[in-house]
């Protein structure tokens, strides 16, 4: 193994010099080269951008994958597939899994039963919602999360590296300034005129030799200072250009943010559409709760009257039907309904009406009253209130 002792010693000496300079600056015993105000503002803006980008990125991940365990597993899976140069398979969403469970349950309970048929409809809707969610997750990851992650793992690492290098060069520059200052003070002391009466001739020679040595030391320190200043200025310019690129990063992230909002709006629009369609489908299915309530009302009405009504279904005349003394209930209308003939009552969604039943009437219908209007209304369009 090629082990360069001289290079190692040089590196250790440089590290020690920087450590001494940094410590003296913290103790207030050494001067520090200050950057201009514009440069300081650029660095503050970059730090602010990094901190908030990281927070937004992490919280967006939590929003898209709320379960921390699933989130960690997904990241590990993505990492492994990335290392293997393969594309990660699409993960099934919770909505799709719920929909599959509902449809499997419907097969067990019987698809012809009210509960089974409703499970089929709701399960299909949940699967559509899950598919929309998966598409939203993929779109958001590509258009929003990926650019943020690229900035944190790419651009920001480059900026941090150049800033660390600039700080090291600043320490070298200030160490050179300190060394030059000390050399000049020593040279000034040795250059002071000696006292001929108290100084021996031998000391004149030593004094002249020391003065020459300190002059060489000053020249060497001045040369090192010029080199350090040049390297520092060059690195400061490189770092400045990188920091000014934060403005372009903001523009790019702004565009990504718009794409994320568009994807989110499209996702919620799809969800709203699927839920509306599900409500319509459920409105067409038999309402077991309403049917049970209807049969109960019919039995209670017959028991209270004790006799059969002379009004038969085939010859039902709405104007002759009278509300019973007991057994009427309030009902909320779920959907709009247009009367098919004069015996029916048109309905508006969310209105409240009074309903009751008459013996011998079809169990899918009730008699509804609204003010002085009266007519048959379908049970499936109502929610019976207590």
TrEMBL record:
Keyword Lipoprotein: no
InterPro entries: AH/BAR_dom_sf, BAR_dom, Endophilin_SH3RF, SH3-like_dom_sf, SH3_domain, SH3GLB_SH3
Membrane topology, from the record: Peripheral membrane protein
Protein keywords: Apoptosis, Coiled coil, Golgi apparatus, Membrane, Mitochondrion, Mitochondrion outer membrane, SH3 domain
One of the GO biological process terms: apoptotic process
Residue ranges annotated for the SH3 domain, each copy included: 326-386
Principal location class: Golgi
Coiled-coil blocks: 159-186, 211-238
Residues of the BAR domain: 24-291
GO cellular component, one term: mitochondrial outer membrane
CDD domains: BAR_Endophilin_B2, SH3_Endophilin_B1
Localisation per UniProt entry: Golgi apparatus membrane; Mitochondrion outer membrane
Protein family: Belongs to the endophilin family.
PANTHER family according to UniProt: ENDOPHILIN-B2 ISOFORM X1 (PTHR14167:SF106), SH3 DOMAIN-CONTAINING (PTHR14167)
Protein name (Swiss-Prot/TrEMBL): Endophilin-B1
Gene label: LOC108878427
């Amino acid at each position: 193994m090629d082990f360069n002792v001289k290079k190692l010693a040089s590196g250790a000496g440089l590290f020690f010099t920087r450590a001494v300079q940094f410590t003296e600056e913290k103790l207030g015993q050494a001067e520090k080269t200050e950057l201009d105000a514009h440069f300081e503002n650029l660095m503050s803006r970059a730090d602010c951008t990094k901190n908030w980008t990281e927070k937004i990125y992490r919280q967006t991940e939590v929003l898209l994958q709320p379960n921390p365990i699933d989130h960690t597993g997904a990241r590990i899976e993505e990492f492994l597939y990335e290392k293997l140069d393969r594309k990660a398979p699409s993960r099934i969403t919770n909505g799709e899994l719920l929909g599959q469970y509902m449809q499997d349950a419907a097969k067990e309970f019987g698809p012809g039963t009210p509960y089974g048929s409703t499970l089929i409809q709701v399960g299909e809707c949940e699967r559509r919602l899950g598919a929309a969610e998966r598409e939203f997750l993929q779109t958001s990851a590509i258009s929003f999360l990926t650019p943020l992650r690229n900035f944190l793992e790419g651009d920001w690492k480059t900026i941090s590296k150049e800033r660390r290098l600039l700080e090291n060069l600043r320490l070298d520059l200030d160490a050179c300034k300190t060394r030059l200052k000390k050399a000049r003070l020593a040279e000034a002391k040795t250059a002071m005129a000696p006292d001929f009466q108290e100084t021996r001739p031998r000391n004149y020679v030593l004094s002249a030799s020391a003065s020459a040595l300190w002059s060489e030391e000053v020249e060497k320190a001045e040369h090192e200072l010029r080199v350090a200043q040049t390297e520092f200025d060059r690195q400061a310019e490189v770092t400045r250009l990188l920091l000014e690129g934060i403005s372009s990063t903001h523009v790019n992230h702004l565009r990504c943010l718009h794409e994320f909002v568009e994807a989110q709006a499209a996702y919620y629009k799809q969800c709203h559409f699927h839920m509306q369609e599900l409500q319509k489908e459920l409105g067409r299915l038999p309402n077991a709760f309403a049917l049970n309530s209807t049969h109960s009302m019919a039995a209670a009405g017959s028991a209270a009257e004790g006799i059969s009504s002379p009004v038969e279904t085939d010859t039902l005349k709405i104007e002759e039907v009278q509300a019973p003394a007991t057994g009427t209930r309030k009902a909320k209308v779920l959907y709009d309904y247009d009367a098919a003939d004069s015996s029916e009552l048109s309905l508006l969604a969310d209105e409240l009406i009074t309903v009751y039943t008459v013996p011998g009437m079809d169990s899918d219908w009730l008699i509804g009253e609204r003010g002085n209007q009266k007519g048959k209304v379908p049970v499936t369009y109502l929610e019976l209130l207590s």
